[in-house]
Amino acid sequence: MKFKTVGHSEVRVDAMAKVIGEATYPEDFYMKDMLWGKTLRSTKAHAHVNLDTQDAEKMEGVIKVFTYRDVPDNHHGVVLKDHEVFCSKKVRRIGDPLAFVVAISNKIAEKALKTIKVEYNEIPAIFDPVEAMMKDAPLVHENHKSNIIFHYKLRRGNIEEAFKKCAVIIEKQYKCGMVDHGFLQPEAGLAYMDGDTVVVCAATQYPHFDQLEVAEALHISQEKVRIINPAVGGAFGGREDITMQVHLALATKVLGRPIKTVYSREESFLAHSKRHPMVMTYKTGADANGKLLAMEAELVGDTGAYASWAINVMRKAGVHATGPYEIPNVKVDSYAVYTNNPFAGAMRGFGATQVPIAHEQQMDMIAEELDIDPITIRLINGFTLGSTTATGQVLSDSVPLKECIEAVENSLGIKNHYEEKMEELAMEAGVGI
Amino acid sequence: MKKRGKGIGSIFYGTGYGNGFPDVSNAIAELLPDGKVAIYVGATEVGQGAKTILSQIAAEVLGIPLQQILFVCEDTATTPDAGTAAASRQTYNTGNAIKIASENLREEIYRLAVEHLKINSKVGLKMADGKVYLNSFPSLAVTFKEIADTFSKQNKRKTLRVEGSFTALTTKMDEETGQGAPYWPYTFSVYGVEVEVDTETGLVEITKAVCAQDVGRAINPKLVEGQIDGGFAMGVGYTIFEDLGLQKGEMKNRRFSNYLIPTALDIPELEKIIIESPEETAPYGAKGIGEPVMIGVAPAILNAIYDAVGVRMTEIPVTPEKLLKAINKAEE
Questions:
Q1: N- or C-end of chain A: fewer Cβ atoms within 10 A?
Q2: Phi, psi at B276, each rounded to 5°
Q3: Predicted confidence band at A433 (pLDDT cuts at 50, 70, 90)?
Q4: Which of B3, B4, B6, B12 to mutate to test the interface with A (most CBs of A within 10 A)?
């Protein structure tokens, strides 16, 4: 089939505006009579808090200091509504929003922030997700009986029997750290009233969900909230959870004037989600020909102080734990756990990015034990049209994994490289005999 | 001493929200008075190229140049919900919704062309360059603009607007066994890298890299390559640079002066191989690639480090300090 535009490298329709600086990002918006907002954030990881905003409110140029008392429904969150718009009784992480100061200038708002007295009564915190799973661990959210908020179980075949038949078994634990999306454009936004409609301009990945979250927190109908999503300077998952949207919407609704806020890079780091760090314990076995027979994995994902997408991330990690290989016997336990770390959520790959750090090294170790090269071991086990995944799903269309492996091999010559290395090693070993 | 090694990382990635959750995209296609076509859809352009490739899908269906598409995605007041720009789902989900909306618009335009041309059937009608014409008698033609004019005269100045909606099919997995069809479609990707490890400093330099990326079908090959470039750089950062320096819940590194991400100087020549294998349920066969393009990077680098220096790095990021420690420990 011949296409006219599909398959053609058309120039990006938004390229020119971005290249010449005409694209409008949220920070570029200004309005008449605009006020400036600044967010007060927690400096403790786990503490009961009390705020005294009197001095700030008396400052010249300060219009109002918003706290949890001003929010009609003080909750938000993409799955569990476990974030408070502003913390009411306790903070659960460093960076939790406590108050939003609105003033006639950015400078005054910044100054006013420093006059707010925050009384912290620190309580035991937990930072290690594996320790957080234990019975006596401090609870990050009191309304949950445990810090474990999700357990995905994958069961296929019989791993005990299968491991008995394996010629080689590799057991290892892997860890990956918490990272940031590092998108180019730190969060910024402007909100204003259009009649009785609250309008929020802020960069987001999902304007219609922001609309819902703002409406719920403000206790108004969704039709009375409009989200304008101008040019977005990267997201990678970091703009799925809202940050400033409700703060701005609330302030403009109460004050009736446009409000703007701009995060610094440092505040951006504090405000949005992170990638889930994981502890991944793997046991993988194959027969003497390199055919995978069994895999067992335990995945512990640290979601920090809030759930965000943890349930979906750890589910995706669990489903992808085998890698793109047919394994007839599989047992996976994947957990999402609260801690007092920065909260983790969506980030490019969404749980499927962490597990290959484990399964791909397991593959190479099995191959090495059996003196098989890294390409062949993958071709022996890789998914192909009609393969069944560990969840029992049949791959009924478009499974070009082997073409991908072969293309990389043709370019990089890994097989040849492996054989040469083995010969060298054999030669070295032979010298002393 | 500098030691070289090669490594591979192969992955699969299931598109969408998954697990039976309603994964819906809605789109509106509208014939504008000047004969151009507007697409209204709440799908965010985050830099991935959504506006371009989704416009290409509409342009292809309607046989008009890309420049004749007005793509509106920035406002909840004018766009229908198309789900989140995440889970590599916009090409597949919203691409399908836009294709359906555009096909619905095409049918409406054909219907109006039949009336306008006073012919007895739409069979044999074709669409190209903003015109509808009879294939066997091309001078019998009507422009999109003429159709738009007629429509607005007959319908109190309204424009011709149609909708399209697409829901991805996944199933909820069994709670005890995790069995089910949780995602669709799956995208495949394989990275190969060559590294040079300095055994005295622990520095890892990536000297060569290749990515073979399954795309179903590339709607826009240049943009696929752009995604691969970006995904690779992000993967390099994840594997050997990025560290928030978490201490008791505090990020010690929260500025770009101490939270190190790769620069162009850290990125070698990257060979990008696009593997096409059109997927039946996808718009023109195109699958999502936004996430798959970064996933295989870390394991390929880790396997290459082992190949170079014989140590298994089980914890990332592999900073020079950590690698040096591991090399020294292995030598003892």
A1: C
A2: -100, 135
A3: very low
A4: B12
Query: Do B138 and B201 have their domain in common?
Result: no
Are B144 and B44 in a shared domain? yes
Verify whether the Cβ–Cβ distance A206 to B85 is below 8 Å: yes
- Judged by CB atoms closer than 8 Å, whether chains meet at B74 and A412 is answered as no
For the segment A361-370, the average pLDDT, to the nearest whole number, is 98
- The residue-averaged pLDDT of B307-320 equals 97
As a whole number, mean pLDDT of residues A288-311 equals: 98
CATH of the domain at B189: 3.30.365.10
Question: Domain of B114?
Answer: 24-167
pLDDT in tens, A217-238: 999 999 999 999 999 999 999 9
Q: What span, in angstroms and rounded, lies between the C-alpha atoms of A49 and B309?
A: 51
Domains observed in chain A: 130-179+274-418 (3.30.365.10)
Q: Please, are residues A26 and B238 in contact by the beta-carbon 8 Å criterion?
A: no
Q: Which residues make beta-bridge pairs with B38?
A: B30, B70
Total domain count, chain B: 2
The mean per-residue pLDDT over the stretch A385-394 comes to: 98
Give the residue from B190, B316, B225, B88 showing the smallest Cα distance to A279: B316
B252 shares a domain with B201: yes
The type of residue at B265 is L
Same-domain check for residues B230 and B121? no
Contacts of A375 in chain B (CB under 8 A): 8
Last residue of a domain, one of B139, B167, B195: B167
For residue B154, which phi and psi values (nearest 5 degrees)?
-80, -20
Are B181 and A391 inside 8 Å of each other by CB? yes
Residues B143 and B224 in one domain: no
Q: What is the pLDDT of residue B157?
A: 81
- Find the residue in A nearest to B48 (Cα): A234
Tell which A residues from 49 to 88 touch B, by Cβ distance under 8 Å: none
Q: What angle do CA A5, B143, B283 make, to 5 degrees?
A: 30
Asked if A8 lies within 8 A of B55 by C-beta distance, the reply is no
Tell me the sheet residues that pair with A323. Answer: none
Residue B78 covered by a domain: yes
Pick the last residue of a domain from B113, B132, B167: B167
User: Can you tell me the mean pLDDT for A141-164?
Assistant: 97
Number of C-beta neighbours around residue B44 at 10 A: 27
Query: Which residue does chain A place closest to B49, by CA atoms?
Result: A12
**pLDDT tens digits, A267-278:** 999 999 999 999
Chain B positions touching A281 (Cβ under 8 A) are: none
The H-assigned helical ranges of A84-158 are: 106-115, 129-132
Active-site entry in B30, B194, B279, B291: B291
Q: How many residue pairs from chains A and B have C-beta atoms closer than 8 A?
A: 371
pTM: 0.97
Name chain B contacts of A323, Cβ cutoff 8 Å.
10-12
Minimal Cβ distance to A391: which of B179, B237, B279: B179
Q: Could you tell me which of A42, A55, A143 has the C-alpha nearest to residue A93?
A: A42
**Shortest Cα distance from A108 to chain B (angstroms)?**
24
Asked if pLDDT for residue B142 goes beyond 60, the answer is yes
Residues B104-116: tens digit of each pLDDT:
999 999 999 999 9
Q: Is residue B148 part of a domain?
A: yes
> Looking at the structure, do residues B198 and B255 belong to the same domain, yes or no?
yes
**Is B175 inside a domain boundary?**
no
Using an 8 Å CB-CB cutoff, list chain A residues near B190: 401, 404-405, 407-408
SS3 call for A98: strand
| Interchain pair B242, A227: CB under 8 A | no
For chain B, what is the largest distance between any 2 Cα atoms, rounded to a whole number of angstroms? 90
Any domain includes B177:
no
- When CB atoms are compared, the residue of B213, B216, B291 closest to A349 is B291
For the packed helices A355-369 and B297-309, what is the interaxial angle rounded to 10 degrees?
40
Q: How much is the pLDDT for A431?
A: 63
CA distance to partner chain A, nearest, from residue B30 (Å): 19
Closest CA–CA distance from residue A329 to any residue of chain B (Å) = 12
Examine the residue annotation and report whether B331 is marked as an active-site residue of this protein: no
| Same domain, residue pair B61 and B102 | yes
